Amino acid sequence: MARRAWGASMLLGAAGYYWRPLQVSELLFGPALGRPGYLAGNALVALALMALLVTLVHLACRLVGRAQGRWLDLFLLWGYTQVPAVILTVLSMAALAPLPRAWGTRPTPAETGLAVAIVLCLSLWGLALKFKAVQVCYDLSGRRLWSAVALALALHLVVSRAEFTFITERGFAPKEAIQAMTPTVGPSPALRDRVFLPFDKLTYYLRPLRRGEIVGFVLPGESGFPSRLLRARERFIARVIGVPGDEVEVRAGQVYLNGRPSDEPYRLGGLQQALPLTKVPEGYYFLLGDNRDRPVAAYHGGLVPEGRVRGRLTEVGQLRWKFLVGKSQW
Fold first, then answer.
1. In the predicted model, what is the mean pLDDT of residues 259-269?
2. Number of helices and strands in the chain (H, E)
3. Would the pTM count as exceeding 0.70?
């Protein structure tokens, strides 16, 4: 069936994995092709991601089960296992679309319970389809099937770890960090505690930070084991104002860079904020939030060592951030 309808399988596979590699596609295609290019190219990256996952499962089945299944059979069948993920994406978009128009409201316990039940049922359905695909393609069952699945999960964890180490990472920005960039709009449910944001790590392996970029950074003194265990995923965010060698001063909320007023179309409020003239030393960057009504100490800005910066907030990350604070435009 999958061989006869391989087009539908490819379409479902691309749709099912479309959102996960969107930031990777932005890094690959964005600078050269612009937004339309990376949005279209992301479908190919999604298929490549599906091929990688299928390869990991295929390798696990061949090593553990000594099965003779074909990779292409599993790849063509795997797209159909994404039906629950596609349904969940459509339902999520339908549920989130009216959210900015009713930003002050909060879901009722019944609505929350219904959403959790739908997500759980669709997730279990997707897992069941994947199990069945492996069983059909490799004729595995019982202990051999579970061993192959366990090995495939282990391989997937290794690949995910490499991705989060060298390409992208995801961290939680606390409310103080979000408010340093923009005042919150209404009692957003997303801002009760913290916001989950993606950061690009690959770029800063290739070049240094640039002025105007929004970056995620960790707090000082986070190297100890207890701190690393409890707050390893917390990321504060701010904008790069000064690079090594720059002289930065803030008068009445206005940044003066190397003696000249800096063009800051993103600046919000803070007419009373003032910071003394500071020369940025080598290995440091000067970070400020866009919301100058917030004191620098509240979000640990100012001079920040390069080693504390964990990545930049790309356009994909900024779109997520703006939606979560009610600034998105539909």
1. 86
2. 10, 11
3. yes
